[in-house]
Specification:
Number of helices: 12
CATH topology of the largest domain: Butyryl-CoA Dehydrogenase, subunit A, domain 3
Order of helices and strands: HHHEEEEEEEEHHHHHHHHH
CATH architecture of the largest domain: Up-down Bundle
Strand content: 15-25%
CATH class of the largest domain: Mainly Alpha
CATH superfamily of the largest domain: Butyryl-CoA Dehydrogenase, subunit A, domain 3
Strand order of the largest sheet: 1-4-5-8
Number of domains: 2
Shape: globular
Structural class: alpha+beta
Helix content: 40-55%
Length: 328
């Protein structure tokens, strides 16, 4: 459902779809926190929304009843719309090591730094969240290890299968819908203009639709869109069925999901490049839907959970019998 909704929104604006997708997935992450933390967020305002930044930037300093945190968390997409922030932190263990996890902070206790200026996904408002000695009660903590496995305090309290899915088995799919929607918009615009467009210059008047390179580009883009949808919906269905039936979502399944997510974005990026490369000057004109999709899709491909170079290396390690290094 998230994929379908975000794909529709992404046809109009990939940035809006991106924020919508993260809004959905961050509320799902909230379900992993202890019930008392969920009550803090939704008890007085059931419509409260949480946005944030996952990187464990800050070291949580122990104090009576919890921790204090300070730091600047970049790339907090949609943070202007949130009432709470979900922030990565490092917690000191008894042996002196640091354990990564999340904390929650209300909007009144942090500031937003207006530092998001990009050529793609420009309207996501992925600004930095800044905290200065913010107190975090102990119940507003969620360890990465718990949400990565799906065995969170929130899941143990609710017992609902949806909340026991490991984070990266499904979480990155919320970022894929915007890319699919942007590619669909580019395909629609390309077909609409190319059917009636003629060449200019030395061979003015020829129909663009008659060129083999143009025909091949639109065919590749359509195939990439259809196959990408099929792959991601297959993975989501199998993951949901496993969770509902109480079966373990195995390492093999989680790696396969991550492979699909990374490859789908690579495929979509190749498709938009095909359209862009045969669009000529029209395709580089600001406001052209192919040009806009090209910028947004390339921006999406840079996300750490979807970047093909990162994802493919991790999956290749697993297939070759090595310990996979990365998010799965």
């Amino acid at each position: 459902m998230v994929i379908r909704i975000n794909s529709e929104i992404g046809q109009g604006c990939a940035s809006t779809a991106w924020v919508c997708g993260l809004g959905m997935t961050h509320q799902w992450i909230m379900s992993g926190f202890p019930p008392r933390a969920q009550e803090d967020v939704w008890g007085q305002n059931p419509e409260a929304i949480t946005f944030g930044s996952y990187g464990p930037i800050a070291e949580a300093k122990p104090v009576d009843g919890g921790w204090t945190i300070s730091g600047s968390w970049p790339f907090a997409s949609g943070c202007d719309h949130g009432q709470w922030a979900l922030l990565g932190a490092r917690f000191p263990d008894a042996d002196g090591s640091m354990i990564p996890g999340f904390v929650l902070a209300p909007a009144a206790e942090y500031t937003i730094l207006d530092d998001w200026f990009t050529n793609g996904l420009a309207a996501t408002g992925s600004k930095s969240i800044v905290c200065e000695d913010v107190f975090v009660p102990s119940h507003r903590q969620l360890l990465f290890a718990d949400i990565m496995s799906g065995n969170t305090p929130g899941y143990r309290a609710s017992g609902k299968a949806l909340y026991g899915i490991p984070l990266f088995a499904g979480n990155p799919t919320s970022l894929i819908g915007p890319a699919l929607g942007a590619l669909q918009s580019a395909i629609d615009a390309f077909i609409e203009t190319t059917r009636v467009r003629t060449t200019r210059g030395m061979k003015a008047g020829n129909k663009m639709a008659d060129y083999a390179a143009v025909q091949s580009a639109i065919a590749f883009a359509c195939a990439a869109l259809d196959s990408g949808r099929l792959m991601i919906l297959r993975d989501l269905e199998e993951t949901h069925d496993a969770a509902e039936s109480g079966r373990e979502i195995t390492l093999d399944a989680r790696i396969r999901n991550r492979l699909t997510q990374g490859y789908l974005i690579k495929q979509v990026m190749m498709a938009i490049d095909e359209l862009y490369n045969v669009s000529g000057v029209t395709g580089i004109t600001m406001g052209n839907r192919v040009e806009r999709a090209w910028r947004d899709i390339h921006a999406i491909s840079q996300h750490v959970t979807l970047n093909w170079n990162i994802v493919s290396t991790m999956c290749g390690q697993h297939f070759l019998g090595l310990a996979p290094q990365g998010h799965y």
